Amino acid sequence: MTEAVETDAGPARITWHRAKQPRLVLAVSHGAGGGIEARDLKALAAALPAHGVSVALVEQPWRVAGRKLAPAPKTLDTGWRGVWPALAAPGLPVISGGRSAGARVACRTASELGARAVLALSFPLHPPGRPEKSRADELLGAGVPTLVVQGGNDPFGRPHEFPEAPGGTYDLIEVPYGDHGFAVPKRAEISQERALELITDGVAQWAGSLG
Fold it and tell me: Which Pfam families match (predicted)?
């Protein structure tokens, strides 16, 4: 089911993949260079409803409008705030999630919006080749249980580059050989299908621990 939502940044769109007996909603948005057709978002939407998690794939207003470039972070946050009432409407706890730029939005707004937890897919810890431009403060400041899923070869931040999680601030799942889009090379020791299973199985287990 697709739902149009008006926000202060323009019309957004939610595509629902509902569980038969949901106990949580996982809301995930796309990155700055793509949409909800990303392989990890599609895999989660296909797998999580069987685990009692309804998945809401959120398209930010700039994507709905057909623009190719994402706006400033503040505008992304505005769009996310605008869709939140629709995400919370089923009356279930909502996991705030996203990939890349969407993960940053989820972290920045989680406490304010009352998210149950944050799912950060391919969190862009720093621009490629610029580790000194760290965005770790956004991740560490989410204020709710957080799961990072990161490709082993992600140029925006490899798993070993992430800071220690003080007080269990976040957990991290590594997808071996994965790039920023979780693509794995053909020569890798795991298949593309297995890489996606690591994501969906890991997120399902983590979501189950949230109650």
Answer: Abhydrolase_11
